[in-house]
Amino acid sequence: MIEKFGQILALIPQAAVPDPDSAGTASSAQSPDLLQQVREAVTADLSREMLVRVLTHWLPAIAAAAAVFLFGRILVRLAVRMIEQASRRARMDETLAKFLGNFASIILQLVVCIASLSCLGIDTTSLSAVLVASGFAIGMALQGSLGNVAAGVLLVFFRPFRVGDTIEVAGMIGRVVEIQIFNTILLSPDNVRIIQPNASITGGSIRNLSAEPNRRIDLVIGCSYNDPLREVRRMLEQIVAAEPRVLAEPAPVIAVSELAESSVNFVVRPWVRSADFHAVKFALTEQIKLGFDDRGLTIPFPSRDVFIHHSGNATEKTLFEAAASAA
After folding, report:
1. What does the pLDDT look like over 277-297, one tens digit per residue?
2. Is the dihedral of CA 14, 17, 21, 26 positive or negative?
3. How many domains does the chain have?
4. Are residues 195 and 234 in the same domain?
5. Which domain holds residue 283?
6. In 3D, which of 115, 125, 131, 120 has the Cα closest to residue 69?
């Protein structure tokens, strides 16, 4: 490089001292030749210098970055395919499976791009910090929606209920129609569509009413203190035994549970299939009322008896009579 510039400088004095006997045309003919030689020498030197620099430094870095990018893309596709296959084997909702695959693809491609830039010698610390800060800002802005997404993932993976189950969540009962990314769609017994956010489902208790094949009906039947308990018990046992949808095992439970203020309470607890729960409960309630009517038994309702004792004091008697008339 230095030798080349020395040769160029050696040419300049020759052009700087013109021959006094030469014509102006000869001087003008020598100037282009000199400039052309300088341009060719500088261009040739710079081209070789740049070529050597690319070959010795940049070309391996570019090749490494390209290799990391290409192989990284292949690995990303394989990872996304594995996630989708695992989702299908787990019988995950198709919408959620696609969402997880796309989300994983975006994250992994960002990692591959950062790794490729690192191979070129580019400092990716600031870029990573910007990405982290952007992700944090987006997460804060969408924390409610992201909470529903996370809750939806938990519902799919842990499966507290499935599509078709009847559940009770947040004070509402319905059959599960679909588990989406943000919401779970229920269908109430009166055919009303309920859209429940996933976060509110996982944040409270979940009652899966159809998870088990059998369910127990809990009835509380009160009779009067004046009714014969043995006859009431015999009647309840006959009504339960006459219902064909009541299961023999586990055996039904019929027992006195409480001596209440105005009634003697029996508990009637037969077991039925989960699909027959409501039908059997309604049928038993009707038959028990008809049995009370046919046998002349009493189903008491809340009442209060007031006893007034009269004394010889006329003033107290007057007060009692006034209170009784006012009542």
Report:
1. 999 999 999 999 999 999 999
2. positive
3. 3
4. no
5. 214-295
6. 115
